[in-house]
Structures are given as C-alpha cells and as structure tokens.
Design goal:
By secondary structure, this protein is α+β, with helices and mostly antiparallel strands. Helix content is about 35%, strand content about 20%. It has one domain.
Length: about 70
C-alpha cells in the first residue's frame, strides 16, 4: 500500500529521501506524517501536513541531521 503524498513538494522530497534511506513512513492524514528510522536506536520524527512557518523545512532537515542517523543512510 502506498502512502499519501505530501501537498508541499519540498516536504514530499524529504519523505521520499527518507524512504530511499529505508525509513518507514506512516500517517499523512490531516495532521502529520511520522518517519521511523531503521536503526536499532529507534529514531523518529514527525512531519506536519501544514508547515508552521517559513523556516519549517530548514529546521526539519537540521533536526534530522543533528538528532538522528539521517546522514548515515
């Protein structure tokens, strides 16, 4: 079963990048997507369906790089 697409292209690109790195993506209804890292440390991150501000994408990528194994995938 495929997941719903994010309505913002830039955030959809982040979700697709996560899928290429074997992260599991759930949700995508009205509020958020949830991304789960494949590593044993069980990292996860939510991606809002409606970004909260102009810097949401930049902040999301920064948090992924700092707090997860995003760069290792």
């Amino acid at each position: 079963m495929s997941r719903p697409k994010h309505r913002y292209k830039e955030l959809e690109d982040v979700l697709q990048d996560a899928e290429r790195k074997d992260w599991r993506i759930t949700g995508g209804g009205r509020s958020y997507f949830k991304m789960y890292c494949p590593c044993p440390e069980k990292h996860w991150k939510t991606v809002k369906c409606t970004p909260s501000g102009a810097n949401y994408l930049r902040d999301l990528i920064g948090q992924l790089k700092r707090a997860t194994c995003w760069e290792k995938g």
